[in-house]
């Protein structure tokens, strides 16, 4: 049996009439779009399309103003369940508008590449439990101070020096393959002289010691 609310189940919060809630007032919004017209037809829910009115350019502009992502200072967009390409594209559309966000959580979204995104004021970024394999795939964060990358798939420390000229103080790389690299902590701190804490442990004297010259004599060449 169809419920009276069935025609609204794919509505976004901006589509609900007679309210003035804006995006910068929401700390943990769901930003997934409803299914595409093709997907609704495939599901046998094409009847919902008849109840979707044609959106005018004025209404699109009003929706953009109501979203107001440009004025978000703190936002949690974790666990969005971005299973379809159009969901990912809508997600990135919102990220591109976060020009004033300072604290951002993007945990467990199956993200693999945000290199085209720039977050000019972001000081704290949490992208735990995603699919990043390289530091090069992270968004541009020139003001970053605290970065958490736990439980991704970052294999090497290549590209970490891109953060050398940022005010990065705290970095978490727990449960990434690069954590098992020989002299891991020394290499990270030598690449990031301003770093104060790695994986929740403050910078220690042994983290600052120069690379062991004997390390090179342990290597052999096979011809």
TrEMBL record:
User: What's in the keyword line of the UniProt record?
Assistant: Leucine-rich repeat, Repeat
Instruction: State the source organism's domain of life.
Output: Eukaryota
Q: What is this protein called?
A: Protein tilB
Organism of provenance: Phalacrocorax carbo
């Amino acid at each position: 049996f169809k419920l009276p609310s069935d025609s609204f189940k794919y509505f976004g919060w901006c589509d609900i009439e007679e309210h003035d809630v804006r995006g910068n007032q929401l700390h943990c919004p769901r930003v997934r779009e409803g299914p595409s017209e093709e997907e609704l037809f495939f599901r046998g829910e094409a009847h919902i399309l008849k109840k979707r009115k044609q959106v005018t350019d004025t209404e699109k502009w009003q929706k953009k103003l109501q979203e107001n992502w440009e004025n978000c200072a703190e936002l949690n967009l974790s666990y969005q369940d971005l299973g379809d390409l159009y969901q990912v594209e809508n997600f990135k559309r919102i990220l591109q508008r976060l020009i004033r966000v300072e604290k951002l959580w993007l945990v467990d979204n199956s993200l693999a590449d945000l290199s085209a995104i720039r977050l000019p004021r972001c000081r704290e970024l949490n992208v735990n439990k995603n699919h990043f394999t390289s530091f090069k795939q992270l968004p541009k964060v020139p003001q970053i101070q605290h970065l958490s990358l736990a439980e991704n798939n970052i294999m090497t420390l290549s590209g970490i020096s891109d953060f050398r000229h940022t005010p990065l103080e705290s970095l978490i790389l727990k449960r990434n393959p690069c954590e098992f690299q020989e002299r891991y902590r020394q290499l990270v701190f030598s690449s990031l002289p301003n770093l104060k804490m790695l994986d929740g442990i403050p910078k220690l004297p042994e983290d600052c010691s120069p690379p062991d010259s004997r390390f090179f004599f342990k290597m052999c060449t096979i011809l």
